[in-house]
């Protein structure tokens, strides 16, 4: 079965005044796919996401989300997308369950046979790990708990496409782990397509099936973490020790190297370790390469 593209930009351009900040950016996301948009500060990630959310008008090129040009998305279209915005501080007096039930009620009119809207408030609260805080006022929540609430607000309408702009900033490691599980479940079980920006390369590696790297408003890489790693030389690092001496070497074909090593030294080889280039190495190398051009 062919994959269904739910979101895409082609030759996308953005100009602020006389400055071009996006240059012919082209990528797409399939149904149920998690795509991470990475890039240094100022690369154009938020601008791209805001254009796709319909919050910003592009200067050129094409954009489509769920078959609609975001510049002309109506309420029905908006009900099918989810956006995680930063903290709902103005609602400090509301209680968690109360706010989610209230916001969810706006989506009821957009419920369909395939997608029941909104998400039941208690089920949603459990899914984001806020059960113990369900009856607390928002102003007493910790930073990480507020962020979980932001995520709950973003998905209360059971969106088909979810935009997450640096979603786990301020999460403790356990909250981050639970959040990753939630995003995977949304993609796998509910077919939600996710476009995520993050500076946490571990997060991108764990969550995303595909990674797009933007630098200076241009796409410099697009592929799986493995495909990107293969683009940089010396991708694997092999470490071993022999007769009490430690060795380390970077190479492209570690399998052949290890075979040769055992052929030559056999039983004398100890502490063998083979490491694929981390996404961090790959990312730094690709960004550095693009800056040198
Ligand atoms: N409203 C605006 N007016 C003028 N320039 C802007 C505006 N918003 C963003 N920019 C510029 O556009 C470029 C891209 O910004 P954007 O916020 O999209 O980058 P980003 O990749 O999301 O960065 P970060 O990782 O720091 O969040 C930057 O050079 C920024 O200064």
TrEMBL record:
SMART domains: AAA (SM00382). This is ABC transporter ATP-binding protein. It is a peripheral membrane protein. Keywords: Antibiotic resistance, ATP-binding, Nucleotide-binding, Transport. SUPFAM superfamilies: P-loop containing nucleoside triphosphate hydrolases. It comes from Kribbella deserti. Residues 7-241 form the ABC transporter domain. GO terms for molecular function: ATP binding. It is found in: Cell membrane. It comes from the Bacteria.
């Amino acid at each position: 079965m062919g994959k269904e593209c739910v979101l895409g930009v082609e030759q996308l351009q953005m100009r602020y005044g006389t400055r071009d900040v996006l240059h012919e950016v082209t990528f797409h996301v399939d149904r149920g796919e998690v795509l991470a948009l990475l890039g240094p500060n100022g690369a154009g990630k938020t601008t791209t996401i805001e254009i796709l959310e319909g919050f910003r008008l592009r200067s050129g090129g094409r954009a489509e989300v769920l078959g609609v040009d975001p510049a002309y998305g109506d309420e029905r279209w908006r009900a099918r997308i989810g956006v995680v915005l930063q903290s709902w501080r103005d609602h400090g007096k509301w209680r968690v369950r109360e706010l989610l039930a209230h916001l969810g009620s706006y989506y009821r009119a957009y419920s369909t046979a395939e997608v029941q809207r909104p998400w039941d408030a208690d089920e949603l609260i459990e899914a984001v790990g806020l059960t113990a805080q369900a009856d607390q006022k928002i102003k007493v929540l910790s930073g990480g708990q507020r962020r979980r609430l932001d995520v709950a607000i973003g998905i209360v309408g059971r969106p088909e496409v979810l935009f997450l702009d640096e979603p786990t900033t301020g999460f403790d490691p356990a909250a981050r782990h639970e959040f990753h599980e939630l995003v995977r479940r949304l993609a796998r079980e509910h077919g939600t397509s996710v476009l995520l920006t993050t500076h946490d390369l571990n997060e991108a590696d764990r969550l995303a099936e595909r990674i797009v790297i933007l630098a200076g408003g241009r796409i410099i890489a697009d592929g799986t973490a493995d495909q990107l790693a293969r683009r940089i030389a010396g991708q694997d690092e092999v470490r071993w020790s022999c007769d009490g001496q430690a060795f380390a070497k970077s190479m492209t074909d570690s399998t052949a190297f290890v075979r040769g090593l055992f052929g030559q030294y056999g039983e004398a080889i100890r502490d063998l370790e083979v490491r694929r280039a981390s996404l961090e190495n790959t990312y730094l190398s690709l960004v550095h390469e693009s800056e040198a051009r």
